Predict the 3D structure of the following.
Amino acid sequence: MSLKPPKKSDLDKGWMKPRLDRYKKIQPEYHLIVTEGTKTEPAYFIAIKNKINSTYPDKIQVEVEGVGDNTLNLFQKAKHLAESSANGYKHIWVVYDTDDFPEELIDLTASLCKKESSPETTYHAIWSNQCIELWFLLHFSYMHSDIHRSAYWPKLTKCLNAIGCGDYKKNRDDMYSILAPYIDTAISNAEKLAAANDGKTSSESAPGTMVYELVKKLKPYLL
């Protein structure tokens, strides 16, 4: 084969043009959501997963695991699930309620998420102080009072009744579809809470929730 450079007159000929049919297959971005609960949280996030995976299978893939454990144990299980999977997870979302767990465990879980993150994989501490029902309530109004988690349920019932959606009960599987129209309000209210809690640890941020970070990240695929 001649090593001479191609003639200028030959450059426009089809046989001299680079092939355009050699496409490199791009893998979708994988997300793993690991939740403390086995019903309420998984039901909410599985609805999100189903919507995203069915619409954007080539761009993003979301998996949800409800492992029934809390704080530090939850993080360890999330790490094990990620490391034992064939998927190269870009984001691992560790979703948990602070409830009445010891402050040191709550804060250690958030610290481990930062420590174990790398340029390839980010662990996110998606805590709610005290519970995910705070995130649900923020879809309707801003909430800054530090009240016990059980007090959120009657407030949610009042809000749901106002839009004709019945009473709030744990383990409802339709919360995402009900709350989806108000998602921008929830994100705005949660960000406002985060600003008010700036400089505080997760155990000190009462009330507070980081669920908005997860939902905000996935929101472009929920439209």
Observations:
- The beta strands are 29-35, 60-66, 89-97, 122-129, 208-209.
- Confidence is low (pLDDT under 50) at residues 1-6, 13-21.
